[in-house]
Amino acid sequence: MRLILLGAPGVGKGTQAKKLQDQFGIPQISTGDILRAAVRDKTELGMAAKAYMDRGALVPDDVIIGIIRERISQPDCEKGFILDGFPRTIPQAEALDAMLAEMKLNLDVVLEIYVDPEKIVQRLTNRRVCSECGAVFNLLTNPPPADGKCPNCGGVIIQRDDDKEETVRNRLAVYNKQTAPLKEFYSKKGILKTIDGDDTVEEVYRKILDTLGLEKEK
Predict the structure, then answer these.
(1) Is the residue at 151 inside a domain?
(2) Across-strand partners of 206?
(3) Left, alpha or beta for 27 (phi > 0: left; psi -120 to 50: alpha)?
(4) How far is Cα 112 from Cα 46, in angstroms, rounded to an integer?
(5) Residue range 40-80, pLDDT digits in tens
(6) Catalytic residue among 40, 79, 119, 160
(7) What three-state secondary structure class fits 79?
(8) 137 within domain boundaries
């Protein structure tokens, strides 16, 4: 199973990708993670990417595509993979198609998790995280202790800058401008599926499995 997870920031793509990875043994491939790994391992493409990152420039699409190609050529991707956070634009999608065609591979499905933008703003602006261990809390659904200390490690619980309302709304605007057109691109190919992500983690996962025609672990 080779799939792309689409969805605005805050819809829960990473959480659902992790659940699919754990159950079916197909790796979640996050662009940010593999870029950092390529830089850490000092691969040729990793060092090319580092040159751009060090001067605060965007890593060109051809470098990212090359790093993704290296990653999906590894043995753990033989049964498939989940692309999380890529592609973000139509040119990236076209480059991905060309690369997969060269590798004689194809995408099975592009799965969009949709949540109303105002609900995303509510989700993210109420999120709090531990500054030490990264534990996640939510003022509405899973409030942190009143003393602001993490019950797991004692770290200070904070609101990240990118969870503040102005930043969240800007991220959503960028997503709608750059990434939302991908829905039409993949819809024309007949592989786009959309599910409602405004539900519990487990219920959204059930919807994903139903849409993919898979069964949940007993």
Answers:
(1) yes
(2) none
(3) beta
(4) 29
(5) 888 888 898 888 878 877 788 888 899 899 999 999 999 99
(6) 160
(7) coil
(8) yes
- Torsion sign, CA atoms 28, 31, 33, 39: positive
Mean pLDDT, rounded, for 179-194: 94
- Annotated active-site residue 69? The verdict is no
| pLDDT tens sequence across 25-42 | 999 998 878 888 888 888
pLDDT at 218: 47
Q: Catalytic residue at 206?
A: no
Q: Is 189 marked active-site?
A: no
160 among known catalytic residues: yes
Choosing from 19, 123, 127, 128, which is the catalytic residue? 127
**Residues of the domain holding 93:** 2-26+79-212
Catalytic residue among 2, 88, 169, 183: 88
Which residue among the candidates 13, 19, 71, 207 is catalytic per the annotation?
Answer: 13
Q: Specify the number of domains making up the chain.
A: 1
To the query of whether residue 88 is one of the catalytic residues in this protein, the response is: yes
> What SS3 state is found at 110?
strand
The CATH number of whichever domain residue 12 belongs to comes to 3.40.50.300
Q: What is residue 97's three-state secondary structure?
A: helix
Q: Quick check: is 32 in a domain?
A: no
Choosing from 71, 128, 171, 207, which is the catalytic residue? 171
